[in-house]
Design the sequence.
């Protein structure tokens, strides 16, 4: 992320601290070459080796307390104004900085609900508590999850533009896949075709290449988070692919569904068509309900209920997640009230959130129908960011 | 890492659990696309989205408790034999697995001392404790740091071979840099020359390309963990470069020192030669003291004292760290007893540890002299893995 974009996000963070009346936000890290807080790229722009505190205050100050060997690097990076180097132990320098800020409430990088706000490891937390045990600050900590959810979720104009370009690049590749698929190719062949295009165009896949793209052909495919296998495309298969590329670090995450015609067919069988249509309609109905203030589970329920009423099993995951620099981004999640999602389904959608909508159903003996679209939450509804798939793509053998 | 190498490391882990009499080791993670436990590549070989427990027992069992959507992927990866999928909440399935193992002592992935053993985030720790609060297991936890230090530190034959190849590839590039350096080039020019070679040869730098290589020319350079700048090479500069590439994921990490002759010179000035020789001698003396059973701070002290006795300031960092899949790897560290290093300087060197030796000193008005070599700890001493630099490299203008 460029220095300008980071400074823009820091400025946004200061506004959020004021809105939520939190005196300061501290991101506490170490050895980020080994394990990296997910917020560092967005609000710092460099790594840290020894214990390091990156602080943003409600009044707009920025402080970095870091190992002295990294002083010059931090100056060169230029994202934090006040730099406080230490040699042997961070404690004294850290307490001095906190004493100068005098915060009553300090948000730190831990969260039970959101992995993106949960960058402080448990051992490091114990270290921090030990440094501050004789101060009043040890009792001032709250989770940074609300700040992180707002900062990552409320997309700026630049962030939305980057996302749109990522979607455009991704959909172009889906079109090329439609021309490429034929019986006899394996899931891996299709994935490699896609990865070759990415390499030629210098496009970075949105998640690990082991399952980006994920390709599933026919009945009895592997689970949704699996990589492509040697399973071969056959006539009568429903195929789906889950894929996206990044633009300037911002991800697309989309799915499309194909049907491979038998030589005697000129359209998909009625069961396939029905399953596909149910997915399309469930997306339309969900999107119609989305607007700021709605809780994620309410939207999830629209698609989930519709699919079950139409006679299919409910999908074993959430309806949609936010997308940004991470594929699973932001706070609020459109998911059922299952414990594994913690409080995320209860958070409200906000203006300028970018969400996927990705219901799924199994068409018995054919395969999985799933479409994943991306939408932007607007003042009173949504804007479609992806050009919707409304017809199943037919492959002629 | 290949499946075979992961299975080799899991087997080694079982031996370590027996040696240390720990019933089981649990690596507890979630959303590893956002934040990744540093051990996952070595002992799992895939990512996890929902809360997931990777368990290795003293009796050699492996269990993965994971979100049901990742069942098929885990089967395909094939590194864990017993796979326990869950849909809504990990708790019941996790407790069932623990009840079947009946462990008295459970090592989990947190550590105050070692970031490599500290992959569980604090929010996730709170989640885990909540799942287990009604069981006896919540009181059975110890840090996995001893297991991680042994598993990462005791290198197998394959790991040592990979390290040797990485060193060979790196030193070849250092030789080419010696031919390339001339007055007028900037630190960035030299870094780009190196990165171009890496790209051409398909070599992956050992750490972030922002400061791999790190290049420092002349007096008043940036700190050790800084990236290259526009500062230009001049006659009379001492230059040093910190750099390494990986082979099959195993890192090299080396430093070399050059002197840029004035047109009237045919050797380095006496002050430069003296500084350089002190570095070489401090490395020799440190290496002579290294053997299994020594504590890291004892070795650090040898070089630190020698350099100070010779009239230079002590270096503001440790003498040497372990190297492996991470540049800063393993447990034991050859560093002074500064609080920022926690207990790592007190740990003992073990056979088959790979260490750097990298003292540094400032030659006033010329620049920084620093050499970083890599050694393997043997039964009763060390084997040099890198071909040592014993003469300062001279650049003719």
Sequence:
């Amino acid at each position: 992320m460029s220095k300008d974009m980071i400074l823009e996000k820091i400025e946004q963070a200061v506004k959020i601290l004021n809105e939520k009346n939190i005196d300061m936000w501290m991101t506490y890290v170490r050895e980020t070459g080994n394990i990296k807080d997910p917020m560092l790229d967005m609000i710092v722009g460099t790594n840290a080796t020894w214990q390091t505190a990156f602080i943003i205050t409600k009044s707009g100050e920025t402080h970095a307390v870091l190992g002295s060997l990294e002083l010059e690097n931090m100056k060169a990076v230029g994202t934090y104004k006040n730099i406080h180097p230490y040699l042997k132990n961070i404690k004294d320098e850290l307490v001095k900085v906190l004493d100068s800020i005098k915060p009553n409430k300090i948000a730190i990088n831990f969260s039970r609900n959101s992995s993106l706000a949960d960058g402080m490891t448990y051992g490091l937390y114990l270290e921090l508590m030990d440094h501050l045990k004789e101060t009043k600050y040890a009792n001032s900590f709250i989770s940074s999850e609300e700040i992180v959810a707002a900062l990552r979720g409320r997309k700026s104009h630049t962030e939305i533009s980057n996302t749109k370009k990522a979607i455009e690049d991704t959909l172009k590749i889906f079109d090329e896949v439609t021309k490429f698929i034929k019986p006899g190719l394996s899931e891996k062949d299709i994935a490699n075709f896609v990865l070759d295009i990415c390499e030629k165009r210098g496009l970075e896949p949105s998640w690990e290449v082991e399952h980006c793209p994920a390709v599933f052909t026919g009945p009895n495919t592997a689970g949704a988070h699996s990589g492509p296998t040697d399973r071969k495309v056959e006539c009568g298969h429903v195929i789906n692919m889950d894929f996206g590329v990044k633009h300037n670090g911002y991800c697309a995450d989309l799915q499309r569904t194909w049907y491979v015609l038998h030589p005697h067919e000129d359209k998909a069988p009625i069961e396939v068509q029905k399953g596909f249509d149910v997915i399309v309609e469930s997306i339309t109905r969900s999107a119609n309900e989305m607007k700021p203030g709605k809780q994620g589970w309410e939207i999830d329920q629209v698609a989930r209920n519709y699919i079950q009423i139409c006679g299919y099993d409910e999908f074993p995951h959430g309806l949609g997640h936010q997308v940004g620099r991470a594929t699973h981004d932001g706070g609020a999640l459109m998911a059922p009230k299952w414990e594994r999602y913690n409080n995320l389904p209860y958070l409200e959608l906000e203006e300028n959130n970018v969400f996927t909508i990705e219901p799924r159903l199994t068409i018995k003996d054919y395969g999985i129908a799933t479409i994943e679209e991306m939408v932007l939450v607007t003042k009173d509804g949504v804007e479609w960011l992806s050009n919707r798939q409304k017809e199943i793509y037919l492959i002629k053998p």
Summary: The first helix of chain A runs from residue 3 to 19. Chain A is about 35% helix and 20% strand. Chain A has two domains: 3-152, 154-395.
